[in-house]
């Protein structure tokens, strides 16, 4: 597999502070060597479990946390849930690192508020790319993967990537090489729940335009691409997405895409 750097813009080299969280010291040392000082990334601290991660994040206020899933005591998913629910300052973008590529881990990580999911054997350039994307509140998941997650959320998908009829494997290549699903995280403050929607009409509680924007998010379009497709300004698209977050009680664009696909899926 090639490890040639991905093309990136000037935005990719903006300073990014990172907290490393893994119960294996050797893994933390390897990650530090891999990314510290690369493309504006600075490792500001380390933690050996979820509780240490929550404490260190409060003290160091990193832009991004590279988080192991399985750790003694508080695991990475619970730590992510607490970090994403922290009040008083902007929570960091969380990139989950794990040796396990099962669907259940991916779904739990996204539900907790993680932005990306990487296998520990991902090449350095992909880890660096994921860090910069998380710092900007971005994630990369293809529509096919999102469809798979909808099935899992509804309990209709087969268990594990090796099961008969299973969707695409959810490894590092699938998560990071596919169409982008991009957007900033905001706190969900609304109430109420939308009912089923269809291409011909929005769910209850959503406007036609909000539903149109949400469906384009679920297709993997970026904010700029949605603005171009609907002949609207970028701030207007961001406003619609913010309303969707509030009305659907979600906190990031991946969750929005999953929710839209759930609402479009016949029950």
Tell me what you see in this structure.
- This protein has 267 residues and is of the alpha/beta class.
- The chain folds into two domains: 156 residues, Rossmann fold (3-Layer(aba) Sandwich); 89 residues, Winged helix-like DNA-binding domain superfamily/Winged helix DNA-binding domain (Arc Repressor Mutant, subunit A, Orthogonal Bundle), CATH 1.10.10.10.
- Helices cover 44% and strands 13% of the residues.
- The strands form two sheets. Strands 2-1-3-4-5 form a five-stranded parallel beta sheet, sandwiched between helices.
- Helix 3 packs parallel to helix 4.
- The longest helix has 15 residues.
- The N terminus is likely disordered.
- Pfam families: GerE (PF00196), Response_reg (PF00072).
- This is DNA-binding response regulator.
């Amino acid at each position: 597999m090639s490890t040639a750097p991905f093309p990136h813009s000037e935005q990719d080299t903006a300073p990014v502070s990172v907290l490393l969280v893994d119960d294996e010291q050797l893994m933390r040392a390897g990650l530090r060597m891999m990314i510290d000082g690369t493309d504006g990334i600075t490792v500001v601290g380390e933690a050996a479990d979820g509780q240490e991660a929550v404490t260190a994040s409060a003290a160091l206020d990193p832009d991004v946390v590279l988080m192991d899933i399985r750790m003694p005591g508080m695991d990475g998913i619970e730590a992510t849930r607490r970090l994403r629910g922290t009040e008083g300052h902007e929570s960091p973008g969380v990139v989950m690192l794990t040796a396990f590529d099962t669907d259940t881990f991916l779904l739990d990580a996204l539900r907790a508020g993680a932005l990306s999911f990487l296998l520990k054997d991902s090449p350095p350039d992909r880890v660096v790319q994921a860090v910069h994307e998380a710092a900007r509140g971005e994630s990369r998941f293809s529509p096919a993967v999102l469809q798979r997650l909808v099935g899992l959320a509804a309990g209709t998908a087969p268990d594990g990537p090796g099961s008969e009829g299973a969707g695409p494997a959810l490894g590092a290549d699938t998560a990071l090489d596919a169409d982008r699903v991009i957007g900033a995280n905001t706190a969900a403050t609304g109430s109420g729940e939308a009912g089923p929607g269809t291409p011909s009409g929005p769910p209850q509680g959503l406007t036609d335009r909000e539903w149109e924007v949400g469906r384009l998010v679920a297709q993997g379009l970026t904010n700029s691409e949605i603005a171009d497709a609907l002949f609207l300004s970028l701030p207007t698209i961001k406003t619609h997405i913010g309303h969707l977050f509030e009305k659907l009680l979600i906190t990031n664009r991946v969750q929005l895409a999953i929710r839209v696909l759930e609402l479009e899926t016949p029950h």
